[in-house]
Amino acid sequence: MRHVPKAVAALLAVIVILLSLDPTGYAAKMTPEIENNIPSWDMRWGAENEDGSLDEVNNPSKAWMHIEDDTQLLKQPGNRGTAWIRIKLPSLNDETPAILFENIYGRHITLYKDGTNFYESYRGYNYENNRILIPLKPDDSGKTLYIWTESSKHRLGISGNVLTGDYRDLLGTLVRIDILDIVLGSTFIFIALVLLICSFFLFRPSMAMWLSLSAIVLSIGLLIVTYSPFLYTFYRSYGKLYLQLFDVALFILLPSLAFFFEQNINSIILIRKFRKVLTAYSLFCFTMMIVNLGAQERLNDVYYFFSVNILSILLVALLVLLVFASVRMALKGDREAIILSTGFAFFAVISITELSWFFIRDGHYNMFLWKWGVFGFVLALIAILGRRLAEKHKQVVRYSRELEMFNNELQRSEKMEIISDLAASVAHEVRNPLQVTRGFLQLMSKQEDGKNKDYLHIALEELDRASAIITDFLTFAKPEFEHTKTLTILDEFKHIEGIISPMANLQGGKISLDIPQEIKVRGNSSKFKQAFINIIKNSIEALREQGHIHIWAYVDNGEAVIHIRDNGEGMDAQTLSRLGEPYFSNKTKGTGLGMMVTFRIIEAMNGKITFTSAKGVGTEATIRFPVAG
Asked: Where does the record place a coiled coil (predicted)?
């Protein structure tokens, strides 16, 4: 994860810290020393024609139910859309007492105390989960509160705690109940914006996946923020906007989620087809939302059916399909698929369970666990993102090394081409005058009997050395062979051994051959010998006491592989990297032409040569040629 951008990593750290502070998301479970929990209350269903008048509570035909379980809402009989709740206040010992209702369901809520209406709330939009904090007086101890609530979704009643205590303490509790949702959702929105900005700096093939990932994280953040009662409690005037943002986020999430998996799991065509269906259906729901708003929300029931009931079924189907696809890839050993399937399965199982329970309870369930499934899923997505960034970083490092190698090879090739042209022109121009000079010196040496004869002999030796250098230049400049034939490697090396063994013996070393008879290559015999004599000669000159040069060969994948290893002085990495460069030599009288010519001959025979060496250990040359035939 160290390759994940620092801003994202810091945000993840903040999320983890916040989760550790309040893992359940309900910080209102306070100690009795600060707040008192009212454990039970009475409730009765309202008649169809009731309008919330306090006179209705004295209707003897309506029976009251005693409620002690605050975790689930009661199912309403028939189509009744109103209910009355009766709560007896405990002793209020605080200077500024208050009462906090964690969850009261209804669009229209009225509270009565002492026979008068002292609180009323009406929401003109379909969000019916209310958190209500109401100040009281110390002399309200023991009094009875009557609450009338009306709903169009048939979700009525109290769910969660009803707390009494000091107003300031309860206000802090009210904020803490949902603040984590706001922080978590806002963090996801910020991460999505960071991913969106980063995506514009990526190559086009990666941009689509990053855009889909940013759309997923953005929609999840919007869902968490707009689903939380926090905004509806403190900024209720914008409730319609929050609901519209929630729907839009859901319309974005489904096709984006399918597209992200389509980009990462290409083996299942069904995902691509289902993504197209989800995209079309999301556009249809968005259009219906616009039409419903234009019709002053008179089409709410139809819009609710398509945007909630049908869309929820599609979401469950998508989650099941994606769990199957990710597990299928994970079983193939794909590491990214394992990470993705683990995080997504965590999210999908929680979401499918909560959605199923929501339908089983006919909407009488407040979903809250899904946000922690989302958190696990987003962590898995970011882990995959970090892994891919790490892989891209490795590729960039590898490509830069290869580029450096290719650049060095290009420079070497250019140098060789320049030297080749120069060598050919100079050699042809110089060789003829040298031959004439040598001829006249030979005539003079035959006629000279005095001390000048030694000088003439030295001059002839130097002319021969200059001629050998010119020959090397010509070999390097034009390594093409006039006469090529099939060469038996063992026969060639036996001849080379006969030439070079006396030199090895003078150095106190020995040469050993281990070459099969059947290995053959195509080439020019004299040039072949010249190249390997140069290599073996360098090995002999590097030998110390009891030196040994081992030469062996074998066939590997259609190539004749020849190894020449000595236990001489060896070379350091810098010297090894410069072998074959023009005019580079680690000998005091060397010109560097020998190895340069050797490289060129082997290259002309379609061969490859590499060296490995260590200072004080020795050097090994490995040469590969295509096998003849």
From this structure: 389-416
